[in-house]
Amino acid sequence: QVQLVESGGGSVQAGGSLRLSCVASEMRTDDFHMGWFRQAPGKEREGVAFINRDGATSYVDSVVKGRFTISKDNARNTLYLQLNNLKPEDTAKYYCASSILLSQLQSGTPDHWGQGTQVTVSS
Question: What is the DSSP track for 3-38?
Fold first, then answer.
């Protein structure tokens, strides 16, 4: 059974940085498109960043562009999200996801979800 396990969340002050990791098991990350979503209290889950199977192409939402970077180490079967210059509005639970079809991933209906890791940014 595929598992995605996120880590790296925490509490930081505005302007700080975090690096989220997502380790995949029972699947190869180079077989899947992968991405990060986040959900703040009272809000819908939203896509933050996506990366294709071989890691050559990535997309970052305009809200976080220039501050967040998605990357993937297929040799380690791990997806990353570097979060820099964090703002209080970045406070949310961040989820890792994977999908065979990029369209499914980007539409928020991936094949697999992680359990999430909490990021809290104070002003």
Answer: EEEEE--EEEETT--EEEEEEEESS-GGGSEEEEEE
